[in-house]
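Much of what follows relies on a compact textual record of a protein's fold. An example makes this concrete, so a full record is given next.
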Amino acid sequence: MTTMTDPPKAEGFRFGQLINDTRYRSYTFQFIALILLFLFFGWMINNAINNPVLQQVGISFDFLQAPAGYDINQQPIEYTSQSTHLRATIVGAINTIIVAVLACVTATIFGVIAGVLRLSNNWIISKLMAVYVEMFRNIPVLIWIIIIFTVAANTFPAISDFRLPRDGSDPERSLLFGMFAATNQGVFIPRLTFSGQGWLIAAIVAASILGVFGWRSYARKQLYDHGREVPTLLPSLAILILPVVIAQVVLGFPVGMENPEMGRFRFEGGFLLRPSLIALWFALSIYTGAFIAENVRAGILAVSKGQTEAAAALGLRPGRIMSLVVLPQALRVIIPPLISQYLNITKNTSLAIAVGYMDLTGTLGGITLNQTGRALECILLLMAFYLTFSLAISAIMNVYNNSVALKER
């Protein structure tokens, strides 16, 4: 017999609670999904192990040490047809990283400019930016790659126009500033040369860049915490340039510049940006820049107009209002989708094969795969590279996103 003062007896655990009780339901479904995922991967691995062809040839990465036997047109590092498949893979990976980094930088510049100008009070400018956004983001990027490649390969002058005629007269065309030449075979630009302690100059440049970010962070902290405006432009230029110049003079100029020069039949020296690289770089930039522009416009519109009006009432100029008030708050909205756009650029570099740019997909996933027949190994390496590079971009951008996120007091 129970009395009014006796506590209620605790009910025992029942398996039905795993589904019906909201405290356990989410864990139950997650556990079931995890088991199904393990079963799926186990089934795939079992099929691969029991595959008769795979059992015959086995899984081996020894093919990476064999001679590649093919040329690569864009060579950021030394490479010949007698180099190994591993060397060819490294060249392709570097080419992928180069175009991805260049496209991320220029797409951000295009996107920020177009996103800000689309909100301009000038009707013509805002409509022109709207046309840019709607036109470029609604046409597949592969179409833009082919269009730009065709224009670059057929409208630039031939190398023969830069040759010195036999009669000693001036050539039809000359190098721009004696350093640049745009031809139908690509754009020739100066190339940096390193000797002796050149690595130390590179380290100083990296330290100077970090110093610029540190100074701008200090100036921003002084402005926000104490209301004191610290100049940033001239000190940033001094931090970036002076240490490098002083180190160059002290160390005897270990870092030089090799300009392209017209030889008897072709340019010698310098660095060649082939039309395939230019087409891929510029197409990815303008295409992704249109998406970034919409992200920037949405981020700016997410900032209350009261913020702009209050800044204007304090006497700030429109440019300062945008850089000091609007954009810092808009970044919290802009950065998360911006990370996705950077990842899209990285994955879209695989379209390089359409114009003959030898990135990782063209080397490891193309010629190397066809020559060696090691499809499984090549695809696994491709997946590992793109996954690692994408996760690295995501991690770096997430660190920056956390630094600008709104912090609770």
In short: Residues 85-168+275-404 form a domain with the MetI-like fold fold (CATH 1.10.3720.10).
